[in-house]
């Protein structure tokens, strides 16, 4: 029997998780593959981005090639009740939620990690691009991937010490091109899929369509107005818009309009010009500090206000209720309630919290 | 944690290994005796003789005439041909289009009947079953109509192991002059099969459930029963199932059925003793556990349970990792915990019916296997209950 720990790999049939599994096998770990069936929208299985029957078959094929056991587990009910529910809830409260964070915390590092540990595994590995380091005091640190273009530490910022302690990210130190090369070396039959930021359960359409389908009551048309109250048009329902959005307002003007604000009480969409956008401060809800502890003094941090945003400098002030306030060096456009603000000290993720309206 | 771990196999109802003696019997027909039984020449004659012998053997074992046995590609195909072929025949000859099936049929029967209803204008009615999944012959009697084409009741259920009173149901159908089909795919491995006294008009079997090869089955069709072929072409199998016969597999099935009906059947006592020990221990040692199916009238090798508040798929995964190959009763490899039709039909509530487990015993099962399973099963279920709360 090998002395190497046993690892459950969350597989999706895609190149990243397949290479992660192959790497662990080649390093001598005892590997088991698990794939979660998260969502299937009736009659739209074909265009679902995740857990299609083909993706499932692909993951199974790769597991067979690697000679590892593979299991598919159904979590549709749980996914619907947590991730999709909070997504719809968020939008109906005027927020722009990021369901991947909820999914990672509650489904992947909730349900799946529980299953892995129950199976006797020591670790849960995924194909995420992020790194883990152990500090001398035994704490686990979450570190950005070495390839900044692929870094996914943002969506992992909701994980706890306990969850991270049982995590492995075999691709964290690689470039996408390395991973493709490894896939070739391992002769993995991975179909090239375009990287996409679409949410896995949107089934090809966009989130507006999805909201119309699942949360019609949140999609009540109303007035589009300026800050001065001038009516410029009609919106399709506030949930269909996000702060800073320019396209799709349907208003012809010499200078482009941007969404400045969503007024839920009045059901109005407030728009204005580019120079009216921007905010130099944000407040978050309760912060998940990766170390488990909030900093005792104000600290200078870099902040990501959404998954693909650039890092922005600011001063972070931790409030006694566990929340935080950030004062940015320069005003930022697109600070959007519902998105996660993630705090970095260099490459290290300090923590993150949901931006409040 | 590799697939190659020494596993204890508890899934004989899914399939069985081929008996080495059966395989020996098959081998010459892949190579030197490779002829096509329809050919005129010597090679063909050797193959035809083998086919003929196999047919006679199967017929004798089932207590019927050799021209009443058709060879097919599997048990499912036999069920398809029975339901579709005899159903179509009845509609053609006497405009009968009402089909009565039990709700605990294998999908081979149920989905075929549903298709006849959906696309071909048949009227499919489900018979009532009791809490054990048994059909009462009196209910069959009460449900028969003048235009009933066919009744189909599974001999012994694959998921819950319950054996139906086939003789009595057959009698009721016989009296009313209505055709009666029974899917005996599970039963043929364990119960003495006598199609002539069982009052069935059609009976389906598949070889791989009784230590024969996969990919071959047979259908008994009582003489005089009109079956409209669903696969047309050459005149093989009395014009009822076109296509060159798979001689090595057919030879293998005949041999395997011989062992099943003469030798394996003597294991009954040993297997049912092990089965009862397992059932007793599970119900005693695992809180919130229930036996599904009939406590006595069940297949001798078959134990099936539901455990409250767990997902059967997760349980299978845990057991596989611990070295036990088991089943939830119905194949659902995609991990979809949709409760089974059978468990719903016998009234198992949703909080219970997702947590099903089927343990089926076979030739290599020894008491120690049961003990080893019981070292793991109670704790695994407890653990699953704990994490599914969170």
Would you identify the regions of chain A where 5 or more consecutive residues have pLDDT less than 50? Answer: none
Task: Determine the N-to-C terminus distance of chain A.
Answer: 55 Å
- State the order of secondary-structure elements of chain B, H for helix, E for strand: EHHEHEHEHEHEEEHHEEHEHHEH
- Nearest-integer average pLDDT of chain B: 94
Q: Hey, roughly how much beta strand do the residues of chain A contain?
A: 25-35%
Could you tell me the number of beta strands of chain B?
Answer: 12
Query: How would you describe the shape of chain A?
Result: globular
Distance between the termini of chain B: 26 Å
Radius of gyration of chain B from CA coordinates: 21 Å
Which class do the helix and strand fractions of chain A yield? alpha/beta
- Which oligomerization state do the chains in this entry correspond to? heterodimer
Q: Please report the number of helical segments of chain B.
A: 12
Can you give a write-up of this model?
The complex is a heterodimer of chains A (357) and B (390). Chain A contains 7 helices and 18 strands. Chain A is of the alpha/beta class. In chain A, the strands form 3 sheets. In chain A, strands 5, 6, 12, 13, 14, 15, 16, 17 and 18 form a 9-stranded antiparallel sheet that branches. With 390 residues, chain B is an alpha/beta fold. A 7-stranded mixed sheet of chain B has the order 2-8-7-6-5-3-4, sandwiched between helices. A 3-stranded antiparallel sheet of chain B has the order 9-10-12. In chain B, helix 4 links the parallel strand 3 and strand 4. Chain B is globular and about 65 Å long. The two termini of chain B are 26 Å apart. Chains A and B meet through strand 2, strand 3 and helix 4 of A and helix 9 and helix 12 of B.
Question: Can you describe this structure in just a few lines?
Answer:
Chain A is an alpha/beta fold and 357 residues long. Chain A is 24% helix and 27% strand. In chain A, α3 packs antiparallel against α4 (99-118).
């Amino acid at each position: 029997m090998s002395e190497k720990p046993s690892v459950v790999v969350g597989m999706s049939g895609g190149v990243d998780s397949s290479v992660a599994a192959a790497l662990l096998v080649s390093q001598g770990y005892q590997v088991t593959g698990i794939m979660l069936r998260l969502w299937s929208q009736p009659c739209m299985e074909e265009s679902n981005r995740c857990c299609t029957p083909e993706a499932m078959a692909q993951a199974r094929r790769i597991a067979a090639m690697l000679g590892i056991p593979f299991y598919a587990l159904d979590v549709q009910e749980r996914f619907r009740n947590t991730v999709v529910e909070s997504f719809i809830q968020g939008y109906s409260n005027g927020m722009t939620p990021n369901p991947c964070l909820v999914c990672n915390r509650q489904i992947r590092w909730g349900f799946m990690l529980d299953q892995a540990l129950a199976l006797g595994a020591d670790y849960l590995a995924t194909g995420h691009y992020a790194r883990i380091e152990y500090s001398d005091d035994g704490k686990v640190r979450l570190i950005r991937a070495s390839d900044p273009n692929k870094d996914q530490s943002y969506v992992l910022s909701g994980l706890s010490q306990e969850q991270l302690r049982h995590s492995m990210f075999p691709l964290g130190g690689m470039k996408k091109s390395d991973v493709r090369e490894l896939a070739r070396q391992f002769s993995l039959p991975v179909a090239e899929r375009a990287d996409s930021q679409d949410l896995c359960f949107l089934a090809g359409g966009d989130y507006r369509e999805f909201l119309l389908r699942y949360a019609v009551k949140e999609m009540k048309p109303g007035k589009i107005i300026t800050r001065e109250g001038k009516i410029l048009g009609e919106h399709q329902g506030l949930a269909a818009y996000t702060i800073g959005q320019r396209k799709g307002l349907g208003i012809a003007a010499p200078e482009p309009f941007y969404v400045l604000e969503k007024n839920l009480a009045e059901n109005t969409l407030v728009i204005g010009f580019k120079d009216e956008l921007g905010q130099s401060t944000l407040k978050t809800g309760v912060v998940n500090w990766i170390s488990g502890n909030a900093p005792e003094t104000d600290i200078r941090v870099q902040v990501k206000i959404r998954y693909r945003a650039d890092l922005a400098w600011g001063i972070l002030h931790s409030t006694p209720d566990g929340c935080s306030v950030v004062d940015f060096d320069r005003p930022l456009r697109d600070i959007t309630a519902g998105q996660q603000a993630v705090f970095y000290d260099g490459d290290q993720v300090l923590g993150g919290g949901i931006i409040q309206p | 944690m590799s697939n190659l771990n020494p596993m204890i196999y508890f899934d004989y109802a899914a399939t069985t290994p081929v008996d080495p003696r059966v395989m020996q019997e098959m081998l010459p027909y892949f190579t030197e005796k490779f002829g096509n039984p329809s050919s005129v020449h010597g090679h063909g004659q050797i193959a035809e003789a083998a086919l003929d012998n196999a047919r006679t053997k199967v017929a004798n074992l089932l207590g019927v005439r050799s021209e009443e046995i058709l060879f097919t590609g599997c048990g499912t195909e036999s069920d398809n041909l029975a339901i579709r072929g005899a159903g179509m025949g009845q509609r053609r000859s006497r405009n009968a289009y009402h089909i009565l099936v039990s709700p605990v049929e294998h999908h081979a029967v149920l989905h075929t009947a549903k298709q006849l209803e959906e696309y071909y204008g048949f009227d499919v009615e489900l018979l009532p079953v009791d809490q054990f999944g048994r059909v009462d012959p009196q209910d069959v009697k009460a449900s028969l109509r003048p235009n009933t084409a066919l009744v189909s009741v599974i001999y012994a259920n694959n998921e819950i192991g319950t054996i139906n009173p086939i003789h009595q149901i057959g009698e009721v159908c016989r009296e009313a002059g209505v055709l009666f089909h029974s899917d005996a795919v599970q039963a043929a491995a364990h119960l003495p099969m006598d199609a002539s006294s069982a009052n069935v008009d059609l009976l389906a079997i598949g070889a791989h459930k009784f230590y024969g090869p996969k990919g071959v089955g047979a259908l008994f069709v009582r003489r005089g029963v009109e079956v409209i072929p669903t696969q047309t072409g050459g005149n093989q199998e009395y014009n009822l199932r076109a296509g060159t016969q798979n001689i090595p597999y057919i030879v293998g099935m005949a041999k395997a059925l011989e062992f099943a009906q003469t030798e394996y059947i003597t294991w009954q006592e040993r297997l049912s003793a092990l089965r009862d020990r397992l059932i007793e221990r599970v119900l005693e040692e695992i809180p919130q556990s229930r036996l599904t199916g009939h406590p006595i009238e069940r297949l001798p090798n078959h134990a099936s349970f539901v455990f409250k508040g767990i997902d059967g798929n997760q349980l299978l995964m845990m057991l596989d990792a611990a070295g036990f190959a088991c089943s939830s009763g119905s194949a659902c490899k995609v991990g979809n915990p949709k409760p089974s039709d059978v468990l719903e039909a016998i009234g198992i509530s949703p909080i219970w019916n997702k947590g099903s487990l089927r343990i089926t015993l076979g030739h290599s099962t020894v008491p120690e296997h049961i003990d080893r399973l019981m070292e793991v099963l109670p704790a695994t279920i407890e653990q699953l209950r704990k994490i599914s709360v969170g």
